[in-house]
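ERR on first pass: missing label on line 2. Operator R.T. fixed the label and resubmitted. Corrected input:
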Amino acid sequence: MQIRDRNLMPVWEKIQSGERLTLEDGLRAYTSGDLIGLGAMAHAVQKEKSGDAVYFVLNQKIEPTNVCVLACKFCDFAARKGDPHAYEMTVGEILGKLTPEIREVHITGGMPPDWPWERYLEIVRSVHDRLPEADIKAFTAVEIDFFHKKFRMPVEEVLRQLQSAGLRTMPGGGAEVFSERVRRLLFNQKIGAKTWLDIHRTAHRLGIPTNSTLLYGHIETLEERLIHMIRLREVQDETGGFLTFIPLAFQPGETGIKPAHRFTSAADDLRTIALSRLMLDNIPHIKAYWVMLTEEVASVALNFGADDMDGTVGGEKIAHDAGAVSPMTLAKERIIGLIRDAGKIPVERDAYYNPLHVHQERVVGKIPYLNSVPFYARLEKRDFRILPVVPRRMGMLCALGEIDAGPFSLMDFLRQEDDMELMGWCIATRDQVKSVMLFSKEGWRDLDGRTIGITDDTATSVHLLSVLLEKKYGVHARFERLHQGVNSYDGLDAVLLIGDEALRRNKHGLDGFELVYDLAREWYEWQKLPFVFAVWALRRSLPSAVKEELSGLVKGSLESVGGDFVSVAGPHGRRIGLTDEETQEYLSGFNYSLGEREREAIEVFRRLVPAAASGAHASPPDREGR
Ligand code: V47
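pass 2 clean. output:
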C-alpha cells in the first residue's frame, strides 16, 4: 500500500481495524494531497467488498416530461408548460423507446401541474407489461412527495400503488446536498433532508430498495458533503435498503449557478469517489456515473473505490441539457472494454445488483461471508479473478458456464455434479454453525401453518430448514421470500437468515423474534452428523494444469492460515461487529476438509431432500417472490 501522506495513516489504521470514519477523519482524507494513497485505501476497501467485479446494467432512461412546477437554480432540464422546448411523452412514445435486451428502466422527470395520478400508474404498468423481465427503477423522493401532496395520499399509499403497478426500486436523485444553507440558496422549493430520508425509509420498509446520491461541485463545502454521507450511513444502519451511492458531478450548463460555472476537476471527482467508499462502509456499491464524470474519469474511478458503472443509459437528458460532454449512450461492448481496461471483471447485473452474466474467463466465486475468508488468503494475489457472489447466484452462474470454480452451496453442487468435480474442501460444521439461524416468534412445533421469511441467497439452508420442519418436527409452514436488499420482516412469524447478517443478529438479537435456532445444531442433535453447507468444486472441462494450480492455491491458503484465523479474517469480523476472540471461535467451529463423515452427511441429506437426490433443477420450496 503506497501511502505517502502520514496524515492518512491513522485513517488507514481505523479502516483496517474495522472502525468507522468520523467527520474529522473524512476531512483529513479529503484535504490530503496524497490522491494516490487515498485511492489505494478506497480500492482496498472496494476489493474487500466486490473482489474484481465491476457491475453494469443494460438500461434505458425515460424522462416522460421536462415540464416542472419547481424552478431549481441548478437545473437546465426543467421547462414551463408552453415553453418552446417543453415536451410531454405519451405512453406510446415511451414504449417506443424500449428494446427487448433492456434489464432496467429508469423513469424520472419533471413534475407537471396537470397530470392525473392514473397517468403515472399507467406509465409504470405499461412498461412492466411490455418488458416484464426488466426492473423498473422509478421516481425520486421529490416526485413521490409531489404525488403525496398533489393527490392527497400518504407516502406509503403512493409507493404501494406504484409497487403494485410494477415499480421495483427507486433512484437516488433529488437528495442534492443535505444542507439547509445550500437548499435555501439553490433549491428552496424542493424537499429537505428529513423528508427525502423519511421517504426512502418508508420505501425500504415496503421492500423497495433505493439508491442514494450527492450533487457536488457547486457551492457546497467539503464538510457538507461528508455530513451528507454520514446521514445516509445512519439511515442505512436502520434499514439496510440503500443499494448504491452515486456522487453526481455538477454540470455547469447554461443557466449555471454563479459561483460554479466550471466542471469539477478529475482530482475532485476521484477524491469524492474514494471518500464515498471509505465513509459509507455499510452501502454495498459506489457508482461511477460516466454520464457526468466522463468515460475517462469513470474508468479511473474503478480503481478509486467505485464498483459500478451504471449502464448503457440510453436517452439521458438531465445531464446533457446541462452541457455534459459524454456520449448519449454507451454500447455494451464499450462498457465491457472500459471495465476490462481498468483490470476488472465486467459483470452484467439487474437493478438489485444480482449478477446476470460475467464477461470474463477463469473466474472463481467467493462466498462473501466471514466463514469463507480463510480460503482466499493466497488466491487473491494470483491470476484467477475473484467474484464475490451469494451462494445461490454462484450456482446459477456456474450453470451458465460463467464461473469455473468456488465453494458451491451443496444443493447447487448436487444439481451440477455431472459438470463439476470436488476439490476436497468444504464448509462443514462440527455441531453448531452460528450463521444459519431461524429467528422465530414460535417454537418449532407451533410453526405449523405459519409464514417463514426465507432468504433468496442460498438453496441449501432453505432445504435444510424444510427438512427439519417436515421430517424432524412434522410441521408444515409457508415459505415467503424476503424482499431483496432490505431488512423488512413485517407480517412474518419466523425469519431464516444466513451469513454475516445471521451472525450479527445472533449476537445482537432480532427485535420481535425471541427464539433463535441454529440449524446445524438442530441437524446434529437429530442425525449426529456434521452439516455440509458448501463444497469446493471446479469445472471438469478445465485444463488439468489450471485445476492443479487452483487446488494448490486453496490448499496453500488454508495451510498459511493454520489455525490463526484472526490473521486473515480479523478485519472482516470486526467490520461486522465481532471481537477477534469471537472471530477465532466462530471459524474454529468449521471443518474445511471434506472427510468421510462429511461425505456421509451429504448422502444422508441427499436421501432426505428429493430435489437433491434427483439432481433436478428444482427451485427452493418458496411460493412467492421474484
Ligand atoms: O436529482 C440536476 C442531478 C439528479 C444537474 O439512482 C444534476 O441509479 C449534475 O439522480 N449537473 C437526477 N447533476 C439524476 C440521478 C441519477 C442518475 C443516474 C443514476 C441514478 C440512480 C440517479 O441529477 C437530480 C440532480 O441531483 N442534476 N441537474 C446538473 N446540472
